[in-house]
Amino acid sequence: MATPKVLKMLEERVEKLERRVIDCDPTKEPPNKSSITEVLLNVHTKIQAAVASREKLSVLKKTDELDRYLDAEFQDRADLTEGAKLQLILAEEDRIRQVIAAYQRMEDLKPVLDSTHIKDAPTHIGKVSALATIQLEQQEQADEQTRNLHHLLATYNDQVNTISKQLLLWDSILTSKLEQQNTKTVPSD
Questions:
Q1: How many angstroms from the chain centroid is the CA of residue 38?
Q2: Which residue from 69, 43, 168 is spatially nearest to 35, judged by alpha carbons?
Q3: Which of 6, 47, 86, 94 pairs as cysteine with 2 (C-beta 3.0–4.6 A)?
Q4: Contacts of 51 (CB under 8 A, 6+ apart)
Q5: Within the chain, how many helices (H) and strands (E) appear?
Q6: Where in the sequence is the domain holding 11, given as residue range(s)?
Q7: For 23-67, how does the pLDDT look when each residue is reduced to its tens digit (9 = 90+)?
Q8: Domain count along the chain
Q9: How far is 66 from 63, CA to CA, in rounded Å?
Q10: With contact defined as beta carbons under 8 Å apart, do 36 and 17 qualify?
């Protein structure tokens, strides 16, 4: 056990720390006679009461459990039988095969990525961007030409329709005149 002298020295140090933390003048009586541990305990209980009434904050209590489940070694520590492990592997067999096939394709295409053509691509960015700009300008010009062509075709169709209507009108007038003339020239017997 600690000697009374050591205990007294520790109590004095705790009182000195409490005065520093509470910011009390040693000549005056502190405003609250409770110790720092009581103050901290009071603050802790108030925080717990505030957190307990909130659903979203109560979820934070489960972060340790969530961290445990998210741990990469959790699967290794889990008590799974060999049969259960086999069932897990068989259940994921298709996905595992897809991952293996994708990895194999990636490995097969790795030399393509390491080719000098791909490595030199950044040097051609300026040329490609200039060509892209030219292509966009030409696309805009082609779109404008297309709009103009559609306008011209619409105008042409309108003119042809107007001429056709006029010709039909003239034909009907001519036909009626010819019929009138034929009726006048045909002698009545």
A1: 49
A2: 43
A3: 6
A4: 57, 58, 60, 61
A5: 9, 0
A6: 4-76
A7: 655 556 555 556 667 777 888 888 777 766 666 655 666 777 777
A8: 1
A9: 5
A10: yes
Count of Cβ atoms closer than 10 Å to residue 86 Cβ: 11
Cα(61)–Cα(66) distance, integer angstroms: 10
- Taking only the tens place, the pLDDT of each residue in 61-111 is 677 777 777 776 776 666 677 888 788 888 888 998 998 999 899 888 888
pTM: 0.34
- Any domain includes 98: no
What would the DSSP string read from start to end of 23-81?
T--TTSPPS--S-HHHHHHHHHHHHHHHHHT-HHHHHGGGHHHHHHHH-TTHHHHS---
- Does residue 110 form part of some domain? no
How many CA atoms lie less than 13 Å away from 108 in the CB half-sphere?
Answer: 6
Q: Which pLDDT score, from 0 to 100, does residue 4 have?
A: 84
Q: Give the model's pLDDT for residue 125.
A: 87
Q: How many CB atoms are closer than 10 A to CB 80? A: 13
Per-residue pLDDT, 147: 97
Q: What is the pLDDT of residue 55?
A: 63
Rg (Cα) of the chain, in Å, rounded? 48
